[in-house]
Amino acid sequence: MKNRINSICRAFLITCLVFGAATQSALGESRLADQVIVKKSERKLYLMSEGEVLRAIDIALGRVPEGQKTQEGDFRTPEGDYMLTRRRVHSDYFMAIQISYPNKKDISHAASMGVPPGNYIMIHGQPDVPKNSPSYYLNNDWTDGCIAVSNADMVDIWQLTVANTPITILP
């Protein structure tokens, strides 16, 4: 029963977000991001429009934040140029937008090492069922390689991006 209620609440929230974003765009009240830039060393995600920062958002990274993701299970967040692709309402986290990792370069590099590159790298909110205190998620790199943000920031990212928005992840 609880899962059904959660599903209904998520569907309602997403409907409201989509309607709100469409209304804002139609009224010219906000701009959509035309690029997302992640600076891992700063622990920041920047929503950009025409070279201007729309929002700067604090992030958490994979548990091994330094270096390029090279294989599945290395707990690193990838670096490079990707796209925001699918949006997922039903996941273990508050909303999620998939990043197009691995790209051809990532696949080739992993193949040369004889390992799988990994996949399902997302920007997502906080866990639906937290295993740690709220402060843990705010003060640590805790994902398996994804980019995590607060739930409120995830709503903003959801509203200010569309499918195929480019994302650049820098060291």
Quick take:
30% of the residues lie in helices and 24% in strands.
What does it look like?
There is one protein chain. A hairpin with a 2-residue loop joins β2 and β3. Strands 3-2-1-8-4-5-6-7 form an 8-stranded mixed beta sheet, with helices on one face. The chain contains 4 helices and 8 strands. Helix content is 30%, strand content 24%. The longest helix has 26 residues, at 2-27. The termini are far apart. It has 171 residues and is of the alpha+beta class. 29% of the residues are buried.
Topology of this structure?
Blueprint: H1 2-27, E1 35-39, E2 44-49, E3 52-58, E4 80-88, E5 96-99, H2 104-113, E6 122-124, H3 134-139, E7 147-148, H4 151-160, E8 166-170
Parallel strand pairs: 1-8, 6-7
Antiparallel strand pairs: 1-2, 2-3, 4-5, 4-8, 5-6
Helix pairs in contact: 1-4
Tally of separate helices: 4
Structural class: alpha+beta
What is the CA–CA distance across the termini?
43 Å
Stretches with pLDDT under 50, minimum 5 residues? none
Largest sheet: 8 strands, mixed
- Strand and helix order: HEEEEEHEHEHE
Strands in their spatial order, largest beta sheet: 3-2-1-8-4-5-6-7
Radius of gyration: 16 Å
Overall residue-averaged pLDDT value: 88
Q: Quote the beta fraction.
A: 15-25%
User: How many beta-strand runs?
Assistant: 8
Q: Write down the oligomeric state.
A: single chain
User: Shape from CA axes?
Assistant: globular
Jot down its keywords.
171 residues; globular; 8 strands; 4 helices; eight-stranded mixed beta sheet; alpha+beta
